[in-house]
Amino acid sequence: MSKSAKLAAVLVAFVLAVAAIASVWLYLIKYPQTAQAATSSSGEQQITMQTVGALGYGPHSTYVSYLVEQNGKWIHSTMLQVKANSDVHFTIYQYDSGSPLRNPFMDQVSGTTDGKEILNGQPVRIVNDYSDGGVGHTFAIPSMGVSVPMPGISSNAKNPCGTPAPCALSYDHNTVQFTIHVGAAGTYPWQCFVPCGLGYLIGNGGPMSTLGYMGGFLKVVA
Amino acid sequence: MAIDTTPAPSVDESGSAPLHNTHDTKPWYTEGNLVYALIGAVLGYTIGHWFGNWLASGYQQIQGSGQNDYALVLGYLLATIGWLAGLGILNYPLMKMVGLHPSPDEDDGAKAHRPLRAYFTYTLDHKVVGVQYLVGMLFYFFTAGLFALAIRTELLSPTRHILPPGSYLTVVGEHGTMMMMMMTSVILGPFGNYFIPLMIGARRMAFPRLEALSFWITPAAFIVLLSGIIVGGFPTGWTGYAPLAVEATQGQDAYLVAFGLMGTSMIVGGFNIVVTVINYRAPGMTWTRVPIFTWAMLVTAMLMVLAAPVLVAGTYMSLLDRTVQTALFDVNHGGSSYLWQNLYWFFGHPEVYILALPGFGIALELLPVFGRKPLFGYRTAVAGMVGVGMLSFFVWQHHLFVSGMNPDMRPVVMLTTEMISIPTGIVYLVAVGTLWRAKLRITVPVLFILGMLFNFLIGGISGVFLSDVPTDAVAHGTFFVMAHFHYTIMGGLIFTFFGGIYYWLPKMTGRQLDQRLGRIHFWTLFIFFNSTFLPLFAVGELGMPRRVFEYEKTLQGLNMWVSISAYFIALSMLIFIYNFIKSTILDPKPIIPDDLWGSRGLEWMTENPVPENNFAHVPTVLSGPYEYGTGAGPMAVIGAVPVEAATSNEPVTHEGGS
Amino acid sequence: MAAKTDERTDKQHLQRIGLIWLVVSLVAMALVYFWWGPHLPPGTDSVEAKGQQFDNRVLATIATPVFLFVWVYLLYVLVHWRVKSDTPVSELEDGPPVKGHRGFQATWMIVTSVTVFALFVFGTVELVQNAGAGTGSGQAPIWTPVGYKQNLNKTKLLVVQVIGQQWRWTFRYPQFGGVETSQLYMPSGQEVQFAVTSLDVIHSFWAVNLGIKADANPGVNNIAFGEATKNGLINIRCIELCGIWHGSMYANGHVVSLADFHTWITAQAATHRQLIPYLPPYANIYLPQADGGYYDPNTNPLPPPGPTPNPVPSVIQ
Amino acid sequence: MDDSTAAMTEVQAADARDREIESAAARGAYWTGSRLFVALSAMIFGSGAFAYFYLHSVDNNGLWHPSGQRPSDFVSVSVLSFVVIGAGLFWWYSRSLLAGQANPSDWRVAAGVACALFLAAGLVQFWGMTRTGFYPGSSGYASVYVAVMPLFAVYCLGTAYWLETVLARSLRAKDVLTPDEATRDSDDVVSFTGTVVGAKLFVVFVAIVGVTFFILFSVVK
Asked: What's the CATH fold of domain B126-586?
């Protein structure tokens, strides 16, 4: 091979290597789309989410997942953005069923502004994970001390939501509402603490271990 | 990218022609090549995936999780078999079944002038395998290094995340696993395979097919491991602790299959080296004349052969837990999470010495050459290496000091672990003795050896803090541990690996790397290596666990310093890559003398390029390899010598000192 | 540099190296022990941390002359015994053909062996005297502080159960009715018995500034001891990779006075009054049952499903 | 004798020396290699045995070995007897062959039968895995059984393959069974004899593994 041919080969290899590295890097740093909290007329921030037993589309269609409402559309994401030093009001429609908890400590509500959640219109401080339906998921921000259990729908529910997501309000669901106060700006992980990864040992694989399904970040911006 | 580096020999092209005529008459389809290998891999994967789906798609846990581990694992395994079959590796075992016994000469395309394509084939020429390994290992090393840069990029900030947490753990796992599994062969692969036969005066390897197989498994393991990113990543780091590994997503299968494959490669490659060194030493190459590098390779290979089976068994068990739902690591059903830790570290600690001993070997091999002195305390050095090898099987529980397993045994493990510093210290004893009044030429290889002596000292002594239970209580699981083993492995193994490249590449390719760039490479690497890893000891002691994506804000300054230093390490590596490509491909300098460094070693007595059979005839070794200044004649002659000449050539022995 | 002829004798070289090394070492050892030592991690917030700091200090002091020996020697070699690196092969001179030196080798081996053995004895004494030195010591530790009894009802120590789960810590106080909290409170000046266990994968409990580190294994009760000496914050991290949120699996706690601790635990019992009936009976380990509940098969029969009435206990002293 | 003839003889002598050295090395390589292979296989099965004893000793959740879990005795006993008889046959006849006492055709029959027995053992064991009567994850015992026995079956099949290659070689190159002074150092004979020496040891190792795990799984309660 002539010297210029060698040089060309080396350059081509270099370009290919850079392209490969760049594409892997871009793949790795991909986050789910960020959903912004809606601001109500009273100036309160609103986040509306739902949980579904199986997403029904995408690469992991069997995964249980959260969805979040953005501009009236349900998007599959767990990246939430809110303003710092404000109250955020959450409404979560729980379409999934549940079971007794691994650690019943999470039966109780903590970290909300009044220490309670509003479950189907009733304020409650603690839920019974041994009841029919158990607890399906929790919404928890450990670094803020927030933990809100969300009872699952009854195992005898007449009209459970099938796939694919999102589920309409006509299906059986529990509605959980609560308000938390967020402080300084920062990025706070939030998670579900109910081992709900069906088919995984101890239930904590799959959706529990994949960003965008049962855990995400609360981005608090100034 | 293999490089056609060997210039055509001026004579005897015709001499080897008849051999290759028989070679050419074989039907075309029995010859493996890379294209067939790729086709085989794709076919194998497809069949395995289909079969796994057929087998298990109705199972409850697969319908629930939506992931079929059977399909993926079988796909990986059959793809590997297809890859090897496409390369022609299965031809020999199949021919054996019908009673054929092709001798190595008949089906090997090796000759002194090796065309570029020879480097892309399954070959029985240990010189070609050595070069394949060299290029492969460099490629794996730099790939894994890129993951390290990704880790450091994420750790620039304690709370703002560039990588999502799942990706971050995948990157950590890819970096750790790739380095730990591939770099076991970083010296044994290229230099061990290339130089052991030359050093012991053998004209062939004992099992050249196994040797070639050991290399060709590595690309499969590499690709399988990388594919883990696409199939969901894996969260366990390189240690793969169950039950986390059992509950993880499909990327874990990639980790387990890749590590298992690499374990197989280690077994196969080490097996060949052990048998070769034991049996193929030339007449006169007594155990006390075997070069110290060969001793290091022998002990390393022995560790591989005896420790890696436990790894293979462990990954197999973990795969069973993930596929057929055994409960070996599931405490709820009669298993135990300690079982994996035991199996893993029973392999894992010898593996650490698999990664350390080759470095010792190169350091002690090069010091006599450049100090123009005999190796000081040769027998002690050998005893030290063998001692490290044996002790390494008795220390694994120091990884479990805080685990609550066998807590009453901790003093014993503390003793065995600290005892390892005695044979390791011997390396320094020998180096100190050899450097005494040496005529030291500070060439580029020597710079790397001195750098290794500096780094490994820090790595070794920080190890004492980890072997002592009360101080381990602080350091365990933190960046202190991480800094410790980077000092031993990167500071020890990788530094000597580069030293080895600068030293031996002229013999392997007939090209010498640019020495000025080599010096720049060394100094940047040395400075920024220390600047990267020294602060990490402090970071760990101050409370930063390994493998976290969030850390305390007070540690941000140190972490940023470390990250920026790490980028400079990358820059230093770029200098090396540039030098390597420039000096071997773009701007090769004219051929250099056969014995570039003035070494007595038998490997430098071969022609340049090394002919197919290494030596025209089996050499007779007359004296040891390090007889500098003792008045001994050349180390060996090619072919037989009269008996009296062999005995009269005994070197003068000096017991120096006061 | 690169002296043409080396006129000094072996003995002179040895003396020069030895002298440099001795002086530098003595200075450095004093600096390490007296100046740097008191600042070494993990600080002095607990008896265990103090012990670990002392060990760090002693080991660092012993390591200093070893480092310095190699560095001084390498520098000496570079200064005295180097030749030009581009000397042609034909002009190379050989060094003295010394293949070994019994005395030197024997001295080296004896010194390293004695050091290693001394380190082993030192480490063992520190481990045994300090009741496991803050490390997880298994189900039935044999190096224990005064007052420890394996039986929960007989032990005189405050027992805190540390429960790891993916991906958070909770703490139970069995002597106070099994109340479970998300923060760790402990009284200062009191030996505390941490019983560390996990509900799923392997975690590891590290109270950073208290120097307490114990793996949380599923189905295993791993006991560690700690006695905080001053009031303040406790920084707790998970130190064994446990999955995606490992990096953010931390908790915090407080070391408070005994009186404050009693006030706090009473308040917790009141706050969690409603919750306690739902918690499983206190057990050393918690293994899952088909209904999702947890129990220790060795100490408790199968509990009835659903909340069991569990009277709020009176606070013991 | 002119110079070129002298040079010729010198080259021939040197070649002869190379051949002698290298065939001795090859013989040693087979010997060392087979021992090393047994050692590394022992590490693999040792890991299985370690899992057995470790899980037995911790007995987590009381689920080491619920009563009644037992693999089919028919499968276990037949696999064991195939392996032991096959190993015994091959070992005995190979020993005689190497000592120059066995009739080559006797050896061939013995090797063939041993090969068939190992093949049968592997296949029966795999078939047995489909009818163990317990779930893999139902206990520690069941898990270890499901982990170790397929591995053992693979080893049986591997042994059958090895014996088959030896047999095939002895049929194709008949003279390897009866080497004389002239062919003793030939590549063919060295590799054949070396393989037999290795296989002779290996079958005994496989039989020992079979007996050990039979005792662990079917005899020990």
From this structure: Cytochrome C Oxidase; Chain A (1.20.210)
